[in-house]
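FW: tagging you since you asked about this chain on Friday. Here's the raw sequence from the shared folder, copied in full. Didn't touch anything.
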Amino acid sequence: MSFRRRLARFNHVFANRIVGRVIPLFPGFGAVYHRGRKSGREYRTPVKVFRRGDSYVMSLPYGSDSDWVKNVLAADGCDLMTRGRRVHLVKPAIYVDAEQADIPAFIRMALKRVNATEFIVLEPAPAIS
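HL: got it, structure written out here
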């Protein structure tokens, strides 16, 4: 099992359950709310999130084959809780950026350590009038 998969399992079993409820309150972090592709159950996944213009960018330290990413792609969106606000996001797109140009410098070093070069970008859903 690769280092990234072991880290993902540890975070899923331990760390996310301990800090998962408070992490969305901190700058640079959030929680993605998504539905299972098969179960239909709602899940909450802590993420590192950054703004790029009006869009939201999330790092994928465990890769784009993570279940939560597959769920967001299949549903064509998700909800993001960040800084006490819940935002509905749509039009997910995966991209690779080895330079991590969209990532603030203070987080870039940690992401490079785990070779996180994949990201997902989403746009806020248009307001319904």
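FW: The mean pLDDT is 83.
HL: agreed, and The longest strand covers residues 85-96.
FW: great, closing this out.
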